[in-house]
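Troubleshooting log. The previous structure file for this entry was overwritten by mistake, so regenerating from the original sequence record. Sequence copied from the archived sheet and checked twice against the printout by T.R.
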Amino acid sequence: MSEKRFKRGVIRTGCAAVAGMMFLSTAAIGLALVVIAVLLHHEALRVLVTSILPRMHRSPRWQGCIIVLTMMLAHILEVLLFAAGMFLAAEVLELGYVVGEDASVTTWCYFSFTSYTSLGIGDIVPHGHIRLLVGIEALVGLVLIGWTASFLLIEMRERRASIGN
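Regenerated output below.
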């Protein structure tokens, strides 16, 4: 009887250790994705401010359009970054899976778009440790979309003020 208990304890400890390592692996992937996405977003804004906008001699309306289009491209790249990260975590490292669709590249991209924008339709449901990545992506999307909105607001106010003076 004590051997069975001991063996169960060892098995449980072993399973907990594996689960802990899987969680840490997922958290490390999530941290890397956050850092890369924030740096990508920052660089897109930096290029806009230092290179693109100063060279434009068009109306503030066109400048606003250039800001929106550039930042939309940055957001799409960030979504694709998270799609690649979730694909890597699920398909290569086997840290989880999704239910609802076949796990194709388009499914991961679609799922990443719905997660990044916090749309969360629910037709694809993550299981396992990749759920952590989905939550991280939703938070990152919220923050980066807010960053873009505040940047656009500030730029449009500055453009409007320069027209009035």
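Residues 1-13 have pLDDT under 50 and may be disordered. Archived copy saved in two places this time.
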